[in-house]
From TrEMBL:
Residues 3-66 form the J domain. It comes from the Eukaryota. The keyword Metal-binding does not apply. PROSITE patterns: DNAJ_1, DNAJ_2. The lineage of its organism: Eukaryota, Sar, Stramenopiles, Ochrophyta, Bacillariophyta. This is Heat shock protein DnaJ.
Length: 66
């Protein structure tokens, strides 16, 4: 399993605002609509970014993950 902090490129003590900003930046970069020539890899990366954000932005899920 990949490290969600590494996926979003944030430190382990990142605030919710930093996590959200990183999520938005990465999701725009890897959105499948922005990468039609590399669709499969973009979809996989986009899903991974979403999972990382979902876990790290929820205090309960983040506490369990940590």
């Amino acid at each position: 399993m990949k490290n969600y902090y590494d996926i979003l490129e944030v430190p382990k003590d990142a605030s919710a605002a930093v996590i959200r900003k990183a999520y938005l930046r990465k999701s725009l970069k890897y959105h499948p609509d922005k990468n039609p020539n590399n669709l499969e890899e973009s979809k996989a990366k986009f899903i991974e970014i979403g999972e990382a954000n979902e876990t790290l932005s929820d205090p309960t899920k983040r506490r369990i993950y940590d």
